[in-house]
Amino acid sequence: MKKLIELTPEFVVCLHNEDYPASLERHKIYRVVPDEDAAADGDLRIIDESGEDYLYPAAYFVSITVPRIVEESLLKAS
Hints:
By secondary structure, the chain is an alpha+beta fold. It has a single domain (11-77), classed as SH3 type barrels (Roll). The chain has two helices and five strands. The protein has helices at 36-40, 68-77; strands spanning 10-14, 29-33, 43-47, 53-57, 61-64. Strands 4-3-2-1-5 form a five-stranded antiparallel sheet. Strand 3 and strand 4 (53-57) form a beta hairpin. The radius of gyration is 13 Å and the shape is globular.
């Protein structure tokens, strides 16, 4: 039997947006949507300014850990 693993949402901060200035804001926190295929290609699936999830280069972001209360607030906003 497979073990069910609870996925904790991951958050990143955008450091670069040169190719996507309308879709990404520098220094903003974004939620990552798990996507193994994208990660294997060096990309992240991010919920961007449109409210939809799209692929962006992982090098544009840095992972962060946020306090629980901040995580709850970010998840409500999504």
